[in-house]
Amino acid sequence: MSTSTRRETWNINDQFLYHLSFTSDLIGFQEELMFQETCGITLAEWRVLSVVSSFKPISSKDITKVTTLNKVAVSRVLARLTEKGLIERAVATRDNRMQYLSLTSAGKQQFRKARAAFEKWSGSLLGALAPGEIEQLKHYLMKLRKRLGEITDEERARNEAFIFGRKP
Question: Which residue in 60, 90, 91, 120 has the most C-beta neighbors within 10 A?
Answer without folding.
Answer: 60
